[in-house]
Amino acid sequence: MEPGRPENDLVKRLIRGDKKSFEEIYCIYHDRLFNFAGEYIGSRDDTADLIQNVFTKLWVNRKRLASDSNIGAWLFTVTRNEAISFLEHRRIVLAHQNIEQTRANRANMLALKQIRLSDDTLFNIYDIIGRSIENMPPQCRKVFLMSRVRRMTYEHIARKLSISVKTVESHMSAALAILRKSLSDYLTLALIISLAI
Amino acid sequence: MEEKMLTDFLAGRLDKEKESEVLNWIEESEENRIEFNTIKNMLAFAHLAHEGRPGSDLLRRKARRITGAESGRLIKTVLRYAAAVGVTAGVITSLFIYRSANFREQLASTYQSVTAPPGQTTEVLLADGSRVLLNSGTSITYPALFVSGEREINLSGEAFFEVAKERDNPFIVKAGKIRVTATGTSFNVDAYSDGNEINVTLVEGSVTVKSEDEDYITTLSPGENVRTDLITGEYLKSTVDTYFYTSWQQGIITFSNRQLGEIAKDLERWYNVEIIFARESTRTIRYSGAILKNKPIDQVLEILKLTSHFNYAIEIDDDKRSIITIK
Predict the structure, then answer these.
(1) DSSP codes of every residue in B159-187
(2) DSSP code of B106?
(3) Are β-strands B197-204 and B186-191 bridged in parallel, bridged antiparallel, or unpaired?
């Protein structure tokens, strides 16, 4: 994605109430936001509802957008905020039940709260992450995507690729190291991920 | 804490005890929490690199639920037409497989295969009393006799199942990458090989649908549909009007906000013709409505033509399938 914001035209049409451009935006961002929020929410159904809410907000508030809005950043911010309030609500629901789940829920919520991004940084993140995944060695990338995007278990991946679980583990940690390096190379990102709450 | 332990935690690979250990560690100091947050957020960010699915019909439909465009362009003419003429059943060929003690063993290892000819539906009665109605061009393969403990059927295409109740012997339909398990129920499975999706719709009873690699598993209630996107593996469960998924049995093709390109695939199967689009853009015109399958195809095309701007030409060749070009 270039910082030239090729989506400007889409946004302009969206503001005018063009349903087709809304559909296009939906298709471009749905999976990213779904998988992103899913990391913190856990349950598929809850995540699906949440993302549908995010897009509903976009549609309802379309007239209030500026014509040069960064739609990706807008959606990302709303997703983050919705996810935080979902986790906060679930914390109350869980309070008297499963203690482990409550703690995991809290850890996820705090992690999510730590993310503070400006629009421009977000553009760079899409870009950097895309490139660093592309630059992973092929098998490593395959394992990483199977695990993170397709949510397959290590055992399942091992069976599919005819490799050992140990090898899957080492591909995963290599992938993580690559990601960590490319992100920390980026000054602003280092700042984001170490920002205190 | 080892990074591996943290990533295992995030992948949900730890037992309760180890999970507690990681949580204790996270809560122990601000430094630890930031380390956890860094890895957690990094993995979450990785999803932002996803390319998106600009052409996904499934996603477009979900988007349309928000804009309220879901009902699409209604071809009222077609509906009126359908109502006036009434429902005419398609040609039904029935096959009966009888139970015979002498052949029991032999039959259990013998596989039967039935294919519905293009343009026709075929009814199959199975040895256990279950009834299967095959849509045109569909085939199923099944053992001539079900041995106790399993009733397994392979499906390619679309079929409606009315399963005889046998609590202990689940009835399993294998279609492409998914498995549908039922005990006594009626449901529709649409898994034509030229489609990108498999649709399972439950009319009554209860079924379990899972993917071949067990990536997901879900149970349907009556009136629910699960659509599996074969490209991404994503599935979407929703409450539907089951009529849209089962009306083909009455010789009616119904569609709700479907693209002409998709409708053309149904027409090709039903009329045994080949449909060519001269302009790609015509494929994306959307329709909602119903078509009676026993009407000649030119009548069907005339009706579709009423609401959009395309023309068509039919080339009849006795040796091959007729070719229809949509301009």
Answers:
(1) EEEEPPP-TTS-EEEEETTEEEEESS-EE
(2) H
(3) antiparallel
Taking CA atoms, what residue in B is nearest to A98? B16
For B6, the closest chain A residue by CA position comes to A173
The answer as to CATH 2.60.120.1440 being correct for domain B89-246 is yes
Nearest of B177, B120, B181, B190 to residue B151 by alpha carbon: B181
Count of residues making up chain A: 197
Our CA-based measurement puts residue B245 at a distance from the nearest CA of chain A, in whole angstroms, of 23
The CATH number of the domain covering residues in A1-113: 1.10.1740.10
- Alpha carbon distance B217, B309 (integer Å): 43
Provide the 3-class DSSP secondary structure of residue B197. strand
Mark residue B59 as left, alpha or beta (left: phi above 0; alpha: psi -120 to 50; beta: remaining): alpha
> Tens digit of pLDDT per residue, chain A (197 long)?
444 445 678 899 999 999 999 999 999 999 889 988 998 998 777 888 899 989 998 998 888 888 887 888 888 889 999 999 888 888 776 766 667 778 888 888 888 887 766 656 666 666 777 788 888 999 999 998 888 777 778 888 999 899 999 999 999 989 988 888 877 655 344 444 433 32
Q: How many CB atoms lie within 10 A of CB B217?
A: 12
On chain B, the residues whose CB falls within 8 A of the CB of A111 are: 36-37, 40-41
| Contact assessment for residue A77 and residue A70, using Cβ atoms and an 8 Å cutoff | no
At B230-248, the pLDDT tens digits run: 777 778 888 887 777 777 7
Burial class (CB in 10 A: 0-12, 13-18, 19+), A64: exposed
Calculate the dihedral angle through the C-alpha atoms of B5, B10, B12, B17, rounding to the nearest 10 degrees: 50
Candidates B36, B53, B63; nearest CB to A31: B53
Domain boundaries, chain A: 1-113, 116-197
**CB half-sphere exposure, A5, CA atoms < 13 A:** 16
Q: Which of A72, A91, A97 has its CA nearest to residue A11?
A: A72
Whether residues B47 and A107 touch (CB distance < 8 A) is answered with no
Level-2 CATH architecture, domain A116-197? Orthogonal Bundle (1.10)
Instruction: Look at the alpha carbons of A148, A149, A155, A158 in this order and tell me if their dihedral is positive or negative.
Output: negative
The candidate with the shortest Cα–Cα distance to B69, out of A23, A9, A55, is A23
Distances B130 to A94, B163, B164, B201 between C-alpha atoms, Å: 45, 5, 5, 17
3 state DSSP class of B271: helix
The string of pLDDT tens digits covering residues B88-115 is 222 222 222 333 334 444 445 567 788 8
Token pair recorded at residue A9: 């035209």
Fold designation for B252-326 = Phage tail protein beta-alpha-beta fold (3.55.50)
